Amino acid sequence: AAKNGLDGWLRYAPLPCSHQCHSKLPSNIVTLNQTTRSPVYVAGSELQKGLKEIYASHVQIHHGQHGQCKDFSAVIVGTVAQYRKTCGPADEVPHLDEDGFWLNTKGSHVRILGQNEKGTLYGTYEYLSMLAQGNFSDVAYSTNPSALIRWVNQWDNMDGSIERGYGGPSIFFRGEKIVDDLARVIQYARLLASVRINAVVVNNVNANATLLAPENIQCLGRIADVFRPYGVQIGISLNFASPKTFGGLNIFDPLDTTVIKWWSNITNQIYQRVPDMAGYLIKADSEGQPGPQTYNRTLADAANLFAKAVKPYGGIVMYRSFVYDHNLNQSNWKADRANAAVDFFKHLDGKFNDNVVVQIKYGPIDFQVREPASPLFANLLNTSMAIELQVTQEYLGQQSHLVYLAPLWRDILDFDMRVDHKPSSVRDIVTAKRFNRKLGGSAAVVNVGTNTTWLGSHLAMSNLYAYGRLAWNPTDDPEDMLRDWIRLTFDLDRNLLDTITRMSMDSRPAYENYSGNLGIQTLTDILYTHYGPNPASQDNNGWGQWTRADRTTIGMDRTVKNGTDFSGQYPPEVAAMYESNETTPENLLLWFHHVDYTHRLHSGKTVIQHFYDAHYQGAETAQGFLDQWESLQGKIDHERYEHIRQRLEYQAGHSIVWRDTINNFYHNLSGIADKAKRVGNH
Ligand code: GCW
């Protein structure tokens, strides 16, 4: 079959079978569960497909009988319990946590044993990833997830459009209904399972209550049936006002008994059709969405309403902390949207039921190219939390610009909050270790669509791949993950590998340089599109994404001494660092401090000269991507080569538009000349 972008990193491109490969390739597959549509069964079929496509090796699947466990050169796939039952003792297998697996390629046969069936499937994809990279080394290791919540959120609307989606219309919905043909959903399930994502919320957080209509609940069941064999559960977003707007009640107060009954009834109906639904995702009292504040109830009252409804089924509620006033007034020096999450949630710490998880965007504003880690992570000591990331490049070039995001995510995950003067990395907080919670993890907004690139650009898929890897192990190295992804997606060619690695690793610094640097956010259009340069839109808007730039000064003063108090939301050591412009990392200077354009950076350069230079440097790097890519012509199939080439050509030009728009804007505003005489008329 012709290979195309749909396979993503599960391409199984043909490789020559060297001597080592001949002696190492399994000649049988033994699966320890023959129930079709079980993850172990799927694992067997996936192995068979991989072996055939990569090494043209046609291998039979046997359904575990005792004798076969000893078969020479078989690959055995199943859970540890299934292995014990069919094959005998499994004493060598180390203790595994839920979803974990053990992979052993040493000796006469390969064993892939999961703690559960999902884990077995993950281990199978791991083994296939080795094979597809021509890696036949002897390994024996186990791996366990850092957290049990490894979700993705789709922002798909029932009419088939996708909010902030750049890869075409929805694979789930069309014309207020769930689509008949779910072939693309199967493909998506494979991709997600291969990077160990275990749940997908299928509809937009700006939710439409019609999803709860009986016929739609039945159809949700069809979606769940497609994901289930891959170990991926589904979840749904709810509209808080549904009892009134859809259910015919005249109220949606979370403490009202008719409302409570209504939600539990709906929940029962859903679980009847989808007994393993992962849970609910809630956006309430945010950006015009209805919420408990209408009835003077707390956000915890709202979260607990749903928590009680799903509790009997083992479901969880992801409650978003993205709650803020979007009609802020900039004439108030103290107004600051960044303060909102802590203001709204801190006093509710400890009031959430134990199956509620507060889902927190990584930064205090909104998926910007550079933000400090959200201080909310350090303020909820008795509440389960998850981090919300965005694979969708909403503010980061919307898949028309190459921006590899793993380094950004690692910056946040590695950040040490120093809660109680003890090591408190965001990673340890959200994986529930730091405060000993039962639940924790991550969710990423991933707006894949029907486009054959999935996200709108082939190169953007490295972000989905890396997200899954980090959700499993948040200390995975961004460059290592990238190299695996490149080998699996394109080819093992050394030069190709180095080139795409270099471009990707340079991409976030480049974007930051030509869009907005020194912590000023992206300077993109804030009012409508979130795309392209529009520095003027960054002030005097109700959204509270401000720069406070005037003729002589720029930056938000978020200090306690004379600003918005935001820095005071961090534990003392971190607060002290951000309070002074001497100790604030320069890449966040303008996030925390309001300074003169002539303020000197550690380099000796002024802020304004740094702006000019960084924008030139970033645009130059981006223009270089095109040449680097073109050096790979002939090494990649024409279709993908050309699609990517066009994107990079566009980015090269658009980076110049960015550079000049931003530089001219601040040049006009400040009247300060560029030392290198590039900006303005000379
Ligand atoms: O970034 C903003 C987006 C909205 C989005 C919102 C959110 C789904 O512009 O489109 O709504 O965030 O995260 O809820």
Notes on the structure:
A hairpin with a 5-residue loop joins strand 4 and strand 5 (110-114). With 682 residues, the protein is of the alpha/beta class. It contains 19 helices and 18 strands. The protein binds 4-O-methyl-beta-D-glucopyranuronic acid. 4-O-methyl-beta-D-glucopyranuronic acid binds next to loops. The site of 4-O-methyl-beta-D-glucopyranuronic acid (GCW) has 9 residues, from loops. One of its GO terms (molecular function) is alpha-glucuronidase activity. Residues 8-127 form the Alpha glucuronidase N-terminal domain.
The main pleated sheet reads as:
8 strands, parallel, barrel
CATH class of the largest domain: Alpha Beta
User: Would you count the extended β strands for me?
Assistant: 18
Largest sheet, order of strands side by side? 7-10-11-12-13-14-15-16
Rg calculated over all Cα atoms: 26 Å
Quote the beta fraction: 5-15%
SSE class: alpha/beta
Number of helices: 19
Number of domains: 3
Mean pLDDT: 96
Comma- or semicolon-separated keywords:
682 residues; alpha/beta; Chitobiase, domain 2; TIM Barrel; Alpha-d-glucuronidase, C-terminal Domain; 3 domains; eight-stranded parallel barrel; six-stranded mixed beta sheet; 18 strands; 35% helix; globular; binds 4-O-methyl-beta-D-glucopyranuronic acid; hydrolase; glycosidase
